[in-house]
Amino acid sequence: MSPIEPVRPIRRTEDIAAQAFWDGLRRSTQARIGLGRTGDALSTAEVLEFRAAHAAARDAVHSPLDIAALAAEVRGLGIGEPVHVRSRASDRSEYLRRPDLGRLPETDDPAVPHSGADVGFVLADGLSSKALADHGVPMLAALLAAFEGRYTLAPPVIATQARVALGDHIGAALDVRTVLVLIGERPGLSVADSLGIYLTHCPRPGRFDSERNCISNIHPPEGLSYARAAQVVAGLVDGARRLGRSGVELKDTSADRALADAGAISVEAPRLVAGTERDHAKH
Question: Which of 9, 97, 161, 207 could link 87 by a cystine bridge, Cβ 3.0 to 4.6 Å?
Fold first, then answer.
């Protein structure tokens, strides 16, 4: 007796066309689009993928940063001995419940060396220690290459249980002209390891969100590349030094310069202003 062939569902032409349409769009985005369904519910495959993405996001938020491993990698870049600073949040639970404590150093006078340098770097775990572990060091290396030795640099600072505004206290203690906070962004259901960079010129406690600029969504190969992010940051640092401030009045014109260098004709248009911590309410 011959084996019974499995019954296969007949796929309609329009179903095949719809699948091809969504498959094409998915090549351009990591967003959860065109989800399949069975009756009135999501298909089992989609439910399992959602649970896996949710678990990855939770892990990114709650996993502690390996400070020793990160410090060893940062040390290898040759810009000084990394210093570790903690926020006033005593643990991850308090950090998540009390964002205000994550913006304050553990002590009123952070134990960092007074440098008087042009630029200081703060590598902060933020809401995704995975993002900092995966992208912090290569992003920092790309920034060093983009600066091309034009600036003096303060010893790097690793900050834990940190929110963006903690960089104001650290930058002031370092006495740097500009502070760059490389911080893990709030993970979503598409990306759990996205890094952001916040730039504040003349940092000091009490700076408003509108006084800083943000480059977000750094997580190659799908997100912004290290080289492109470094190009934008370098342009913003140069602009902040000329303007004397950062924030809403400081624009990213790197795309305009690239067009000019390529000999293209550019049309004057409103430029997007890099976001603020409030815009990204993830820190």
Answer: 161
